[in-house]
Amino acid sequence: MAVRTIEWKNGRVVMIDQRLLPTREVYRVYSHYREVAAAIKDMVVRGAPAMGIALGARGLKGDMARDFDRICRTFAATRPTAVNLFWAIQRMRRVFKRNQHRSADTLRTLLEREALAMHDEDVAANRSLGRHGATLIEDGATILTHCNAGALATAGYGTALGIVRGAVEAGKRVQVIACEARPFLQGARLTAWELKRDRIPVTLITDGMAGHLMQRGRVSCVVVGTDRTAANGDVANKIGTYTLAVLAHRHAIPFYVAAPISSIDLDCPRGEKIPIEERPPREVTHVFDRQIAPSGVRVFNPAFDVTPSELVTAIVTERGVARQPLGRTLARLVAGDASRRERKLEPRKQRRR
Amino acid sequence: MAVRTIEWKNGRVVMIDQRLLPTREVYRVYSHYREVAAAIKDMVVRGAPAMGIALGARGLKGDMARDFDRICRTFAATRPTAVNLFWAIQRMRRVFKRNQHRSADTLRTLLEREALAMHDEDVAANRSLGRHGATLIEDGATILTHCNAGALATAGYGTALGIVRGAVEAGKRVQVIACEARPFLQGARLTAWELKRDRIPVTLITDGMAGHLMQRGRVSCVVVGTDRTAANGDVANKIGTYTLAVLAHRHAIPFYVAAPISSIDLDCPRGEKIPIEERPPREVTHVFDRQIAPSGVRVFNPAFDVTPSELVTAIVTERGVARQPLGRTLARLVAGDASRRERKLEPRKQRRR
How far is CA B158 from CA A348, B144, B172, in A? Predict the structure, then answer.
């Protein structure tokens, strides 16, 4: 069973502190939305904006619309690249707008319910994505992945690692090669940790070793997540992903992207329009508190890169697998989702009483 | 002026402890050859086998041939990939063999002289290589390099960084992008340190960022060193080099290899024949003493990879620049060197009295 990353408990948000993994498993309790926003910015967790907003909504009084807007803007300012952050904020804004004539108590309950629904939907979507993705994985495969697109990056099942879990649940014997993903080492710290915990065989390498392994024929496919995928199928993901795609292309190794519908941004035509977050130099010059570079050295620290659509073999969503030409198939999958969402909006709410 | 890496001082070997850089600049004094061999194995320094053997020769008595052979074998067992280690040992063996009828005192003096000659020749060769390489570098270029092929990797000028220094000495304005080179971080710890010390502009990145920079058009050329280059031009170098070559090829960026003649192994027909050292898992699971991966996780840690000849734009030696077809031009350059060495052997010795 994959780790529970984020939980709503008695009006508070409980989250695992990912910065301390893998050597310490510490859960932190947040009772103020600003703490949750800071935790997202500091990479204590990824995601969690909806629960953070629900937490903020507990303090609504007076000019509720103004205060709610401030809360939403606080979360929007945490990180620029991942689009599902904005998507989640948008959903919370919609619930607020539709119900702003109601009492603060009712609003709070509705927002809390929406956040919990999104959490459950996220797990369900990941499981569905995992099942679709598993059909692409051969028995005996060695899957190379980058960074962490696992339980720790989502509500609890994972996207890229959801495909790995889906393959395992389908009875396939697979093993994973995890790139460590400098500078923040999510591969070494998080992916290796959660796969080991699930007893899925994993081998850790540094980012520069992937090419050598592909050259030696030891990689069956690459499976990565995405923070935002543009309408044409260009994929923004953790820095280093583009390099893996170029290497996979040279070796004719399939390159799969696990992309929940919420991470596909049809408003963004091409990858070059996706804002790329630059993070503090200290992540590069230090590992935890250990200085590894000369003081004052100039550093470039982009957190993401963009893989052009042409290098992507297929994009796996919870609604199915999009193949080339990605632009067309992605639009169809997302549209299918939108029409379904409209139809299901009320029934889903009723179900959650 | 580049740092002095290794010195012979009053019958001892003094070396900078590269493991402590960049935060501490510590020089260690070695008086026993086994300590020098251990230092090479533990990556306190690279190179230095000749001075280590000369140090060992100071203790020769009794069955000198047997003892000398044991010393040489100790150094041959330190690291398998870099061929100039074996080349240096071979030169020391040749001096011993030619003079083994002489007294222990004379032998010791001749071996010490040979080690010092090799040291000086190394610096001279690097300077010459740097001058040849500088002709390939355009004014205003941004040179991406990997690991450390600088003063710290040689007797004191560098091969890849020798080309950078050569370009600077030729009046060109250049800047360097240094890949950190996980796991051992020679780029962050050594390259950034020695370039900063020489006031050559340097920007540090993690290994996964190179592709993104090339994609954005921010790299003019790649210049790397080599631990061994095969007869056909396949290049073994620090793990991660192959990835940079594939990326450079995709972006039509020139990929240059700085290869002293002593690193070209004509006895090795192709790169796949080059033994690739695997180093301890701890280098990947830890950064200095800090654990960054779950305890007991499986690790793969090859220290080198092989870049196929076809991805190499040119190989720069101290005798000139070899272009495609590399196999033919390399053989010519090395042969030229061998005939010159024969001719110069006696005069050089006389010069060094």
Answer: 67, 15, 18
Put simply, the answer to whether A207 touches B206 (Cβ < 8 Å) is yes
Pairing of strands A6-9, A12-16: antiparallel
* End-of-domain residue from the set B104, B126, B148: B126
What whole-number distance in Å separates Cα of residue B264 and Cα of residue B83? 8
Q: What is the DSSP string of B55-67?
A: HHHTT--SSHHHH
> CB–CB of B134/B167 below 8 Å?
yes
Same domain, B84 and B165: no
Residue A143 and residue A187 in one domain: yes
Check B305 against A215: CB less than 8 A apart.
yes
How close does chain B come to A212, measured CA to CA in Å? 6
State mean pLDDT over A42-55: 88
Q: Which residue of A has its CA nearest to B22?
A: A294
Nearest CA of chain A to the CA of B230: how many Å?
A: 17
Contacts of A203 in chain B (CB under 8 A): 297-300
CATH number at residue A173: 3.40.50.10470
Q: What is the pLDDT of residues A72-91, one digit of tens each?
A: 999 999 999 889 899 999 99
| Least confident stretch, A38-47, A189-198, A206-215, B261-270 | A38-47
Contacts of B145 in chain A (CB under 8 A): none
**Best residue in A292, A300, A301, A311 for a mutation probing chain B (most B CBs within 10 Å):** A292
Please check whether residues B109 and B142 belong to one and the same domain: no
User: Is B149's pLDDT higher than 90?
Assistant: yes
Chain B: closest CA distance from residue A291 (Å): 7
Contact B323, B254 (CB under 8 A): no
CB–CB of A208 and B302 under 8 A? no
Are both A79 and A205 inside the same structural domain?
no
pLDDT tens per residue, range A292-343:
999 999 999 999 999 999 999 999 999 999 999 999 999 999 998 555 544 4
Domain of A321 in residue numbering reads as 135-343
A212 vs B contacts (CB less than 8 Å):
239, 242-243, 302, 305-306
Q: How far is A144 from chain B (nearest CA, A)?
A: 13
Query: Is pLDDT of B352 > 70?
Result: no
Closest CB to A192 among B177, B206, B297: B297
Judged by CB atoms closer than 8 Å, whether chains meet at B297 and A202 is answered as: yes
* Residues of A designated catalytic: 227
Alpha helix stretches (DSSP H) within chain A: 33-41, 49-57, 64-76, 83-98, 104-134, 160-169, 186, 192-197, 210-215, 241-250, 282-285, 326-351
CB contact under 8 A, A284 and B250: no
Which of B24, B189, B206 has the highest number of chain A CBs within 10 A, making it the mutation to test binding with A?
B206
Same-domain check for residues A248 and A191: yes
Query: Where does a domain end: B74, B95, B126?
Result: B126
**A102 lies in the same domain as A159:** no
The answer to whether the beta carbons of residues B39 and B15 sit under 8 Å apart is yes
Domain presence at residue A348: no
Neighboring chain B residues of A247 at a CB cutoff of 8 Å: 243, 246
Query: Same domain for A66 and A143?
Result: no
**DSSP reduced 3-state for A15:** strand
Annotate B96-154 with DSSP letters as a single string: HHHHTTS-HHHHHHHHHHHHHHHHHHHHHHHHHHHHHHHTTSPTT-EEEEES--SGGGS
In terms of C-beta density within 10 A (0-12 exposed, 13-18 middle, 19 or more buried), how is residue B339 classed?
exposed
What count of other Cβ atoms lies within 10 Å of the Cβ of residue B131? Answer: 18
Residue A32 burial (C-beta neighbours within 10 Å; 0-12, 13-18, 19+): middle
Note whether B182 contacts A208, CB cutoff 8 Å: yes
Domain containing residue B26: CATH number: 1.20.120.420
- Residue A350 within a domain: no
